[in-house]
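WP5 quarterly update. Target: FAD-dependent oxidoreductase. Source organism: Geodermatophilus arenarius. Length: 551 aa.
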Amino acid sequence: MSGPVLIAVDDDPALLEAVGRELRSRYERDYRVQCRGSADEALALLDELAGAGEEVALVLAGETVSGAPGTELLAEVRGRFPHAERALLVPWAHVGTPGTGDAVLEAIARGRIDHYLVRPAPPPDEQFHQAVSGFLLAWAQTRRRAPHTIDVVGETWSGRAYELREVLGRCAMPHRFCLADSAEGRALLADRERRRLPLLVMPDGTVLEDPTDLDIARSAGTAIDPSGDRYDLVIVGCGPAGLSAGVYGASEGLRTIVVDSGSIGGQATSSSAIRNYLGFPRGVTGGELARRAYEQAWLFGARFAFMQEVTDLAHEPDGIVVSLDTGGVVVARAVVLAPGASYRRLGVESLEALRGAGVSYGAAASEAPLVAGEEVYVVGGANSAGQAALHLARFAERVTLVVRAASLDAGMSHYLARQVEGTPGVEVRTGTEVVGGGGDGRLDHLVLRDRASGAEETVSAQALFLMIGARPHTEWLPPAVERDPAGFVVTGPDVSAGAVRALGRPPLPLETSLPGVLAAGDARHGSVKRVASAVGEGSIAIRLVHQLLAV
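Structure tokens (predicted):
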């Protein structure tokens, strides 16, 4: 049969048979399962498959194979099949032992493996299959085969076609892009009358011609008209903090609505692998985390109004009036501000003109398949930039991470900095900034400047991903909501003495200078710019909302 290949390697015949049995029992209908008893046999199979142009989706290897660590064999896979998922098989008795944990983390940091997996128990081992299914989904996403994928067809890379890809990325909706005159584009358009481009082909076959953002929200069932309604709680923003507030608010009986000018996830959707989020030892993408949180809030009864922008807040006798860009209003008993922040603009005019044509802000997870075999640059020194560089390295010829700081440790988690520095195909240039670049309709070069010497260098580049700084989405707030000089919302003990006197009481820890309005997440002054911190603040905000409503 044809299809992608799953490979298991172990020099213990009984253990190999157990793994092979589990793989064949569940996946043989859609995948070809191959088992090998030594490293040499496995490498010969990989070479044969690579020479034949076959696809390998997953390789599993025992802790020791042919007298050497299984991580060494798995490291060899990346050069032959850069998109294959690689997992080390660990006995149940070794889970929790320091030596095994250290070895697995070291192998991940050095780019030798992607995951670990506990060896299957006697069938049916659903925990084993849950992990394997997750690995296969991750592989499908890198190969642009994710379930419920939306096809975007455009005449050019930039313009509205790029904007649509940005919208879908913010919605955490799997999507792929092709030009109308490409083979893939012609195939998608072949059975349809001439349509206005760009267009979206939805998973159920529905076609949206040059849709507005609101059209996309309606098609996904996430657009409602909240005008004139009354709620216990209005949450402004649907990133991790807003989603957390939505889950806890709705689950605790508050009539809750979440309003966002974009969609779910905020900046977190650009993270291709969050490995240090509590409860996900094998990591989770920002998009997947956002989708799960959205479904959780929806199940508890939270309502969502996407592609709608809040333009003003006012404290009135009957509640807090929330004004929308549609002209409507919502009245709330309490408000949680979680508008998040976006990446700061680079400010180089020639590069801004190429947005969507090689230049992107964030969105590395969705744009990665489009840079296969190219020279790619990522600008930024925080975790999101490091995660993007690692993900892009599976597609690009080479990835260069450009960091203004003198070292990665200044803004990146230690485990991630080690992984970036140890990954083949990733180069790190510290103390460097992008000061120019351009191309004829599409990016083809950048100008880099050494911050210490001032020396400039022109380099070939086909893609640039910018993940620098944080600009809070707070410019719309009324003067009654205090902000610091950078625009971040001031809360709790940081509220000015004059505002405290006007409030008539000390504000609650996350409360702003406007009574009944709280702030959480990246847009709050003094917040820790981490997903887990934003989620924590969202949950704490709901406890404080209950205190406000009880008065």
